[in-house]
């Protein structure tokens, strides 16, 4: 009997998402291999966060499908629509996926009525059957790693943007998930903290072996921390490959993104020399 | 015009069905919700304890005005001794459940609609879903259950302080003897009157808090407004529809029980 190939842990096939007349994702086909870190890059407004929300089941795609271990995930926000979760097709697969997945929101999505400690403990208390001592140990460890031990009793509103980001990261990792979806994990952080967060993601990934999808604008850090890169452009995957392939591809859109720091330096130099700035590429 | 009316009627039917489904799901989700007690206590505090001063003040003035008006009206017919039963029955069967519900909608209902709307806008509800936590069980169930506890208690407080207000008007400001006032109330008020009051308080509690939760929870589905405007539109809508709902339900229950 021939061996059937193992499906990727998470994949999309022909994913389409519209908001009114605006097509945000036109036809996104992507595979996230198990145990790898995939960075999704692209210009602002190209639908990176929308793609991540479709992967997480927060948004329902208008076409195509999201596959978890080869099984399609059901239409999700059952509670938001007032439906019983069992009423939606593929809901079981989605529930299983959510037990094994964490999501770091771009805006952090911390519960502002809970303290930092309670925010981190929330997924363990509500979605697992772990004993209290284990929850306490895990939350303490997660806060210690993110240098938030001293702020355990503070509310998110009493924290800086960077601290909130680290708190959201602690909450995402405390459940020791198999898949973590990071939406701009370093937005609003200074360069040192940015490096620290990418280092932490890479370290945690090696320690726990989770599969990660990171939506980011920080290309150097992404190249250092990820195994795969995908560039989203006009609702489609323009490039997908390893960092080495990304560095070598002659694709002009990829090149524009890849060489943007050098382009900026050149433009600034030209500006100082009195020349006009070149037009922004499409 | 007929087309527009038909469209509007269909929308009302659809939204009523949506509300009914949301409410039943909200109550059912309490079953599997972990650490519900802690959130229930917080909801009881927010809906009840924080609204108590308003309830007491409005209840007292309602009783005072009712006592004054009723005394002068009854006195014209030589029936001032019936003031106690009139104040008590009016308060217990009508004014206490209705006015307490309206006060609770204005203070607690609007606050919880805005809170849920902001939680929806800031993706906190989405975050709960991605963590595998049922947002209805976590956010809505404790508020619905709290309403079933708080509304009857607050209605009771309203009625009691209203009776004291009536006594102040009739027996302190006006010459009705206090023993006549209280004794006539004791004779006139029956268990059925208190039962009607309790039924109304429970129905108004479930109806208004469900409406407020539904509007806040679905603030993102509000057409014609986004962000902070959607939250404010949802809050206004929740208060208006809850107030209308209380008066309509009051008529329905009264016509069934009288």
SSE topology:
The complex is a heterodimer of chains A (282) and B (258).
Chain A: E1 10-19, E2 22-32, E3 37-41, H1 48-56, E4 63-68, E5 71-72, H2 91-99, E6 101-104, H3 116-127, H4 132-145, H5 161-173, E7 179-183, H6 191-208, E8 211-215, H7 219-225, E9 228-233, E10 236-241, H8 243-248, H9 252-258, H10 260-272
Parallel strand pairs in A: 3-8, 3-9, 6-7, 7-8
Antiparallel strand pairs in A: 1-2, 1-4, 4-5, 9-10
Chain B: H1 2-28, H2 36-47, H3 52-76, H4 83-121, H5 124-130, H6 135-173, H7 178-188, H8 191-217, H9 227-257
Helix pairs in contact in B: 1-6, 1-8, 2-6, 3-4, 3-6, 4-6, 4-7, 4-8, 4-9, 6-8, 8-9
Mean pLDDT of chain B: 94
SSE string of chain B, helices as H and strands as E: HHHHHHHHH
Q: State the end-to-end CA separation of chain A.
A: 50 Å
Q: Measured on Cα atoms, how large is the radius of gyration of chain A?
A: 20 Å
Strand content of chain A: 15-25%
Query: Helix- and strand-based class of chain B?
Result: mainly alpha
> What is the number of strand segments of chain B?
0
Helix content of chain B: over 70%
Amount of helix of chain A: 25-40%
Q: Give the low-pLDDT segments of chain A.
A: 76-86
Number of helices, counting only DSSP H or I runs of 4 residues or more of chain B = 9
**Could you tell me which chain pair has the largest interface and how many residues each side has?**
A-B, 31 and 27 residues
* Integer count of domains of chain B: 1
As laid out across the biggest beta sheet of chain A, the strand order is: 6-7-8-3-9-10
Strand residue content of chain B:
under 5%
CATH class of the largest domain in chain A, named Alpha Beta
| Main beta-sheet strand count, sense and barrel state of chain A | 6 strands, mixed
Rg calc of chain B: 21 Å
Number of helices of chain A: 10
């Amino acid at each position: 009997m021939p061996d059937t190939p193992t499906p990727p842990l998470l994949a999309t096939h022909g994913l389409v998402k519209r908001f009114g007349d605006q097509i945000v994702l036109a036809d996104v086909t992507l595979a996230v291999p198990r145990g790898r870190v995939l960075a999704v890059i692209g210009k602002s407004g190209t639908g990176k966060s929308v793609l991540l929300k479709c992967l997480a089941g927060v948004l329902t795609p208008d076409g195509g499908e999201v596959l978890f271990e080869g099984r399609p995930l059901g239409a999700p926000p059952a509670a938001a629509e007032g439906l019983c979760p069992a009423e939606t097709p593929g809901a079981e697969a989605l529930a299983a996926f959510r037990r094994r997945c964490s999501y770091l929101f771009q805006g952090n999505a911390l519960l502002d009525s809970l303290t930092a400690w309670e925010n981190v403990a929330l997924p363990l208390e509500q979605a697992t059957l772990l004993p209290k001592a284990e929850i306490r140990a895990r939350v303490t460890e997660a806060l210690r790693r993110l240098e938030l031990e001293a702020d355990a009793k503070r509310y998110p509103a009493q924290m800086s943007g960077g601290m909130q980001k680290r708190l959201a990261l602690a909450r995402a990792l405390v459940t020791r998930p198999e898949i973590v979806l990071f939406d701009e994990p370093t937005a609003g952080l200074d360069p040192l903290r940015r490096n620290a967060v990418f280092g932490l993601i890479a370290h945690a990934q090696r320690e726990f072996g989770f599969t990660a999808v990171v939506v980011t604008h920080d290309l150097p850090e992404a190249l250092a921390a990820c195994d795969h890169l995908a560039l989203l452009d006009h609702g489609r995957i323009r490039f997908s490959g390893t960092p080495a392939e990304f560095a070598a591809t002659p694709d002009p859109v990829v090149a524009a993104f890849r060489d943007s720091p050098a382009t900026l330096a050149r433009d600034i130099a030209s500006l100082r020399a009195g020349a006009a700035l070149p037009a922004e590429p499409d | 015009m007929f087309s527009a009316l038909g469209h509007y009627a269909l929308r009302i039917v659809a939204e009523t069905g949506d509300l009914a489904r949301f409410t039943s799901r909200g109550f059912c989700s309490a079953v599997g919700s972990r650490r519900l007690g802690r959130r229930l206590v917080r909801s009881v505090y927010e809906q009840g304890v924080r609204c108590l001063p308003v309830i007491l003040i409005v209840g007292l003035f309602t009783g005072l005005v009712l006592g004054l008006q009723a005394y002068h009206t009854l006195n014209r017919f030589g029936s001032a001794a019936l003031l106690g039963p009139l104040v008590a029955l009016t308060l217990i069967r009508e004014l206490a459940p209705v006015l307490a519900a309206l006060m609770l909608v204005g203070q607690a209902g609007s606050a919880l609609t805005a809170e849920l709307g902001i939680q929806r806008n800031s993706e906190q509800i989405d975050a709960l879903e991605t963590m595998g936590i049922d947002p209805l069980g976590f956010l809505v169930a404790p508020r619905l259950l709290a309403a079933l506890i708080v509304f009857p208690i607050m209605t009771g407080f309203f009625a009691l302080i209203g009776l004291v207000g009536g006594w102040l008007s009739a027996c302190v400001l006006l010459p009705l003897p206090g023993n006549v006032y209280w004794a006539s109330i004791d004779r006139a008020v029956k268990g059925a009157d208190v039962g009607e009051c309790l039924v109304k308080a429970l129905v108004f509690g479930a109806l208004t808090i469900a409406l407020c939760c539904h509007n806040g929870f679905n603030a993102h589905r509000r057409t014609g407004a986004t962000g902070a405007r959607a939250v404010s539109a949802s809050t206004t809508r929740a208060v208006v529809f809850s107030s209308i709902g209380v008066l309509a339900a009051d008529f329905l229950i009264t016509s069934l029980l009288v």
